[in-house]
Structures are given as C-alpha cells and as structure tokens.
Predict the 3D structure of the following.
Amino acid sequence: MDAKRAVTRRGFVGGVTTALGVLTLKPDGSLWAQAAQDPAPRQQRTENDYDAMAKLGNNENPYGPSEAVMKAMTNAWKYSNRYGYPDGGIVDAIAKHHGVKPENVMLGAGSGEILQVVGQAFLRGEKKVVGSDQSYNAVYSAATNIKADVVKVPLLPDYNQDVAGLIRATRQNHREVGFLYLCTPNNPTGNILTKDQIKQILDGIPEDVPVLIDEAYHHYVEDPAYATSVPYVLEGRRVIVARTFSKINGLAGMRLGYAVAPRDVLQEMRPFSTGSISAIVKWGGVAALQDAASMEKIKREAIQLREKTIAELKSLGFASIPSQTNFFMVHLKKPVVPVIDEFRKKQVIVGRPFPPMNEHLRVSVGTPDEMSRFMVAFKEIVAAPKTAVKTGS
Ligand code: PLP
C-alpha cells in the first residue's frame, strides 16, 4: 500500500494513462477520434519520444489534474483490487453540481462513450444523425460504423453553425432523424452556439427528436451569450448534455465523462453503456467538481496564451477564427496537410486536417514553452515561404 501511495505524480499519470489507453481504444480507432487524429501509432512511440513532443493536437489540458484531484486518485489506489468499492458518490456529486437528480446522470468512459451510446440507442432502424460539418467527427464515424446515415449541414462562410440549416435538415428528415447533434463550443472551429440559437433550434424542430448537446469545452467559454443546456433537461425536453473530465480537468487519459438527460431518455441509453470506469477516476471526478479554483486558473492561462498566440499570428499576416475554447484555427493560406507533417518533423504535434477546411490548422493551447515552440516552427514552416515546405501548388 505504501509503495502505491508513494508513486510520483508523473509516474502515476503516465502509468495509468498507458494502461487505460490500451484498454479503452477500439481496435479500429473509430470511436476515439483523438486516437484516430494521432498519426503515430502508439506502439511505435517510446515514452521519451512522446514526452519530448509539444502536444498541440488533441485539445488537452497540458498541466494535468490538479493537486486535489491527484490526491483523491492516489488515495483510491487502495480499491484497485475491488469491485464493490466506495466510489466517492460520483453520480450524486454530478447530480448536485447540475441541480438534477441522480437518475438524470449516466457515466461514460469519457464523453466519447456517451456520444457512442447515443448513436447506438437512437440510430437503430436506419435512422440518421443531423449535425454541422465541420463538427466533432467521432459522432459521425460512430454512426457510420453502425451503418447509419449522417446528414451534414455545412458551416456558414464565417465558420459559425447554420442554425436555419440545422432546423431545416431536421424537419425535412423528421421521421428518419435518430438525433440532432450540436457541439457548442464547436470542435474544430472553437466558436459557440448562443443560448438564443439553442432555443431557436429546439423551438424549431419537432419535440420528439432527441438532441445531443456536446459541451466538452463548456468551461473555457467567456461569451455571456453562451449558456449550458442543462435547464432543458429539467424541463423534460429530449436533450442529452454530454460533459467530460478530459479537458479542463486534465483527465483525458483516465476516461471519465457523463450525460445529463431526462430519466426516460437515459433508460433508452443505459443498455448500451459498458460501465467500465476505474475506481481511481471516479474519485478524481468528485474532487475535480469541487476544485473550481483550479479550473478557473487553467481557463485563465489557456485564454491568455490563446489570445497571445492569435495576436502573434495576426502580426505575421495570419488570421484565426475567434475561439471560446482551449484551441483555435489559423488560416494558413496554403494546404494544411504538408504543414502538419513539417510540424511533426519539428516535434510539434498539431491538429489533424479537417476537410473541407483544407487551409486551416487547428492548434491546441499548450504550456507557454509549447506555444513558443509552435511559434518558432510556424515562422520556419509557414511564415517564411522561401524556406518553407513545398506544397505542390
Ligand atoms: N466531444 C468533443 C467536442 C471533443 O472534442 C472530444 C475530445 O476531443 C470529446 C467529445 C470526447 O472526449 P472524451 O471522450 O475524452 O471525454
């Protein structure tokens, strides 16, 4: 026991992350889009190689879990040989946090599991998912994996989601729509649907259509026009809000997310959930919910560094899409694919391509050191055309 307690923060996170990474990845990588985004196969990568890279490709919190969360997780090692262990009351803690009942909460091994379960529950019988293009692609690939159709509504020219288009597509396909997917803030663009736009969408579509609202980046938003959609759950609307501990709480490798939804909606989903969540992260999740100060600190640092980097890029002549998240997209004015490769050669992992946004690069906000490495590489690869990569155009 003492040896387990004495484990270092770095060793603890690395070891558990590695173990869970292997256990939770689907063989085809289709569910876990973050894994799919990563061009280097995990098996071929040594720990040192990975640690040396600036990791700006997966919208993670570069600092990892807070001290309070680490303490709670370290203490929970004592349950690693048990099934019926105390879990810190994670479901109750989430319910209390949102002012809902425990019956309105379903845990997932990351919110990725929630997104997949929604697909399995609501796309059976040749149903379709409606959503924006671009948006978080894991939802669409999970649908495709179970042979469901995807109705994609292109983003507007300013990269915002097309509210009228989403309503129209849902109404036109009403009887075949399994659910409508709304990601806000949206990944990969980083912009939001406002509270009013969400209302407009919910008022504009048939009430029986389930709406999955993915709030993975909720905690980073500053725009007062944004609000969580949890109140719609309390109204009894067929809304499923998905949240994750992977982003601001720094627990991506530990796998914990959840859905908040009406009881009957969750009842349709529960048969498809695995319930495979470790004792350790349940305790971490409880501590994370209580650690508002750490979340605020991570948020402030991410926003300050995001805006600093966007300003530097602007001074070099490269515009970015305004973001409400811990990532942003910069317009390269040239094809993104070879640029991503060049960054990798310089040990900087950036976001994957997001067609049809073929000249935009998604950059996650890392540590100040990682962002400096990004800017140095950017100047060499993108901003200095004479020495830059040949794009073939
Ligand atoms: N939703 C969005 C919009 C995301 O960007 C991600 C991960 O990048 C997820 C859901 C899934 O995250 P996780 O399964 O780690 O909770």
In short: The pocket of pyridoxal-5'-phosphate is lined by residues 34, 59, 110-112, 136, 183, 187, 214, 216, 244, 246, 252, 257 (CB under 6 Å). Residues 292-315 form the longest helix (24 residues).
